[in-house]
Design goal:
By secondary structure, this protein is α+β, with helices and mostly antiparallel strands. The chain contains three helices and four strands, in the order E-E-H-E-E-H-H. Strand 1 (7-10) and strand 2 (16-20) form a beta hairpin.
């Protein structure tokens, strides 16, 4: 089922990482108002509290998540990232290997 497929992020200069176990988790991650930093050796989320400005419409988005999908926002996306990678990263890397070699 497509709603249970893992979500993958590809870096523009390399790095291929599972970022969520499904689209619902990705929607929750997006409530954190952060972007992923994708490197060859890892992916992580970072937001400089010193330079952070809340995205326009974030509160409306969070209200929509709650009302339409019964999803709670998250403060820290790292737990979702870690759980998704434990569940899927190894299998994804095995699947991806022939494409990277060819």
């Amino acid at each position: 089922m497509p709603d249970r497929w893992p979500v993958v992020a590809f870096g523009d200069e390399g790095g291929e990482w599972i970022v969520a176990r499904d689209v619902r988790e990705l929607l929750r991650v997006s409530s954190c108002d952060v972007e992923p930093r994708i490197d060859f050796d890892r992916i992580h989320y970072f937001r400089s509290e010193h330079h952070y400005r809340k995205s326009e419409g974030l509160d409306a988005y969070i209200d929509w998540l709650r009302a339409q999908l019964q999803l709670a926002p998250v403060d820290d996306p790292e737990a979702i990232l870690e759980a998704a990678q434990r569940a899927w990263q190894d299998e994804f890397e095995r699947w991806l290997q022939p494409f990277l070699q060819g």
